Amino acid sequence: MTIQELPLPPDNSELRSSSIPGSGIFRQLSQSVAQCKREGVTYASGTWGYTVLRTAQSPTANDLWPSALAKLHRWISKYLIHYERLGNDLADGRVWDELGRRFALDVDVTQPTLADLPDDLARATHEHVRALDAVFEDWVCRCALGGGAEGPAAAPAAAETAARFQRRYNPRFCDFLVVDEGALRSLAELPDETPSVESVGLRERLARRALHDSAYVWLVDSRAVRRFRGTTDGENYDGLMKLSIGSLVSAWFERLWRFEDDRAIFNREEFPEGSGELWYTSAPVGREVPPVDGDTTIPPGAPGYTDYITPLPEGKAGTVMEGTKLNCGVWYTVVEGDSCSSIAFGHRTTVAILIEANGALSGEGGCNEGLVVGRTYCAVPHVAWDSI
């Protein structure tokens, strides 16, 4: 499969206007496109997405694969691209509609058969992961950096480009997805139809989340795989993690936003606790959250913080609860039946982070005792809420 270049909206386009919510994404994409073109790489320019490797090779898997892949693409491009926008109650979805149109998965049809690869990648050794990375590396050199050319004549040019190209400028060349038997079944169980992208209340968002919450793929940080030497510390880890499809958008754009750090790694959290299963979460690496009593589990893919500050919604200034931090990305007004867990998990953060952003929730009576119907709280604080 080959993805063609898709020109970005011009500078004078409405989608690039600072008055349109989310327009900054295109400025970031433009920088990525420009840098890649300076180095002679235009493959899939103007799009975003991943290469997908499939290790599930059983007859049943072969039957499920076309439908599962189509569902993954549909849920990301039609609904989950809007997930953060909906959480912030932003009505204008034009930028996210356009981003959905630009989502493209590259499926390598030359899948190798790795006889000793376990059905569940949770049991994979680092050698298994390195073997998968070798397939990805072959794809990058052969298709992406080689311009899609095949045969011996294309190899020298591709190798030369690969040697000098700074892959960090395009996440498509840094990370890839793998679908094993479990991931394939989870994708196949997704509903055929995606929910509406109109703004809805928290309870409805939680109900909709249940439709896709069990669907996942494996995310592989290719550069981390190559530099790993068996000891996990700091920037060294084996590069393998589960990725909830609800966090796929976050993972790609986190890599794009952090392109200047060539050795940036993803944060991984064990969920459920004690399971040994490591999930991608875009909570800032190294940010320690103090333990609190009660439910502090991080749901798979929870970002935890935002990288932007949102002004208080019109008419809400008088409802902000005392002790609430104003360096906030997402605001929320409590309704009957809310709990700290429902608010935190509904906004893909943690109870611990919710408490640190809202002083009224840290009283002796516990977090839930600090919730008052009709009062507004910071549901998701800015990552540097305590230092800016």
Automatic annotation (TrEMBL):
Source species, domain of life: Eukaryota
LysM domain ranges (all copies): 330-379
Gene3D superfamilies named in the record: LysM domain (3.10.350.10)
InterPro entries (UniProt xref): LysM (IPR018392), LysM_dom_sf (IPR036779)
Region annotation (Disordered) ranges: 1-20
Name by which UniProt lists this protein: LysM domain-containing protein
Organism for this UniProt entry: Chaetomidium leptoderma
